[in-house]
């Protein structure tokens, strides 16, 4: 199961990276096409959807790799045992909050599908299609948070802490700036 979950987070991160690549290609292509007099208004809609997709699909991967902002001022001052308890409580709150996000994303996307909502821009796409990235990303993030909660509840050190410690051991403090 561990390999499957790690692969799932990696694939989601890869999909987010592809969205960013798509944004780059579209933005450069739009700039070039404008120089030749082509109308490119619809590109803005697609770029907006890709931005949202990149953000939400990357959340689980970023969380598991210690790339989320964490306020560790208090945690650094605590004993190992108290730090573990605080991590567990924080993850429990995160499970509730991210679970609510995932549930809301599901309802939001379902309502768009149910009411046949279409995009108001130049491309008339059913809105549930670009909203799927929000839905999938939110559920993957929820799975990652629950996964982390279970790991910490079993007495393990959080993987996001291990990832940051590994980067620091290699002399990489770039994420701390």
What does the model show?
By secondary structure, the chain is an all-alpha fold. It has six helices and no strands. 22% of the residues are buried.
Helix fraction by DSSP (H/I, runs of at least 4): over 70%
What is the number of helices? Answer: 6
Q: What shape does the CA trace take?
A: globular
Along the chain, the helix and strand elements come as HHHHHH
| Broad structural category | mainly alpha
Average pLDDT over all residues: 91
Stretches where pLDDT falls below 50 for ≥5 residues?
A: none
Query: Mind telling me the C-alpha Rg?
Result: 20 Å
Keywords:
177 residues, mainly alpha, 6 helices, globular
Give a nutshell description of this structure:
The chain has one domain (2-176). The mean pLDDT is 91.
């Amino acid at each position: 199961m561990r390999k499957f979950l790690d692969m799932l987070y990696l694939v989601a991160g890869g999909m987010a990276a592809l969205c960013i690549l798509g944004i780059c290609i579209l933005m450069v292509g739009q700039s070039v096409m404008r120089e030749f007099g082509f109308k490119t208004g619809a590109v803005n809609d697609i770029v907006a959807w890709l931005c949202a997709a990149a953000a939400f699909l990357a959340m689980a991967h970023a969380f598991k790799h210690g790339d989320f902002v964490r306020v560790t001022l208090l945690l650094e001052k605590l004993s190992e045992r108290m730090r573990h308890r605080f991590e567990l409580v924080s993850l429990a709150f995160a499970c509730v909050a991210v679970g609510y996000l995932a549930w809301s994303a599901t309802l939001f996307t379902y309502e768009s599908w149910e009411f046949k909502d279409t995009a108001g821009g130049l491309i008339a796409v059913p809105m549930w299609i670009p909203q799927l990235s929000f839905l999938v990303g939110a559920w993957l993030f929820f799975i990652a948070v629950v996964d982390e909660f279970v790991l910490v509840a079993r007495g393990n050190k959080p993987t996001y802490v291990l990832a940051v410690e590994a980067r620091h051991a290699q002399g990489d403090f770039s994420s701390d700036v």
